[in-house]
Write a structure and sequence with these properties.
mainly alpha; 9 helices; 83% helix
């Protein structure tokens, strides 16, 4: 299996895992709020949370719109030569990533890995690549409920789970942690394969450059030999021309002297 095909499959796996995880979280959010309403335990529920949760239906809709838009951008777009357009698209990816994280109350940040996987492959400009990677790293570090809740009032996902039993709480947390770990492993595998392919590509380019340098040396030697051959040909041409002139002079002078000699002999006799 080629490295390029492996990268494509791993990115698809990451997309599927992110969709499954976000769907799992969305189901928990909708089911929890619905269960609280159905069992008329809203007062007890509100007593155990810090802030009122956002409208769960609207939150889930916004999350899916952002997710599908992000996946569409990653999978359908092609590398453009327009740097401004590319940077605008990457900024949009960062914004969509932030929206998705907020919609699940900062409980899941693995979607960042999918965006990073897209950035490291498609951004050719090293400076822009580093800038966006730093931005995504900062988002991953600071996209924490304890930090964000200081400025933005929101309910904690863990507070939503308080309506369940300890066993149910542990089961849901375990499922979430398992798929999050698989997503992280897929991302690590993706980066390892990508870096190895980059190393192989650099080695291939280095070998080609060495071969080109050797070819240039050989070409230079052949040019020198060609110059020497041209100089030799010129010299041989000059020699041949001198020999031709010498033969003409010899033949002409010989015939003339022979004629004069014959004429003198006739006169003397």
């Amino acid at each position: 299996m080629s490295k390029q095909k492996s990268l494509i499959l791993l990115k698809m796996l990451m997309g599927i895992l992110n969709f499954a995880i976000l769907t799992f979280l969305a189901v928990i959010i909708l089911y929890t709020i619905g269960m609280v309403r159905a069992t008329y335990t809203a007062r007890s529920f509100l007593n155990h949370i810090t802030y009122l949760p956002m409208n769960p239906v609207k939150t889930v809709i916004v999350m899916y719109v952002a997710l599908f838009t992000l996946v569409a951008i990653i999978n359908l777009r092609q590398q453009s030569e327009n740097s401004i357009l590319n940077q605008t698209i990457y900024i949009l990816e960062v914004i969509l990533c932030g929206i998705i994280i907020c919609c699940v109350y900062m409980e899941y940040k693995g979607i960042i890995f999918l965006v990073i996987a897209d950035i490291v492959v498609l951004i050719r400009d090293k400076t822009s690549q580093k800038v966006f990677l730093v931005i995504m790293g900062l988002i991953y570090i600071f996209a924490d409920y304890d930090i964000i809740s200081l400025g933005i009032k929101m309910v904690s996902f863990r507070e939503l789970l308080n309506v369940y039993t300890v066993r149910q709480h542990m089961l849901m947390t375990g499922i979430l942690n398992f798929f999050s770990s698989v997503n992280a492993i897929a991302f690590i595998a993706y980066m390892i394969i990508y870096m190895r392919s980059q190393i192989k590509e650099k080695e291939r380019v280095t070998i080609l450059n060495q071969q080109l340098a050797e070819a240039n040396v050989q070409l230079s030697e052949m040019n020198n030999q060609l110059k020497d051959y041209a100089a030799m040909q010129k010299q041989m041409g000059e020699i041949e021309e001198r020999n031709r002139i010498a033969r003409e002079i010899h033949d002409t002078l010989g015939h003339t002297m022979t004629g004069l000699s014959a004429g003198l002999m006739l006169v003397l006799h």
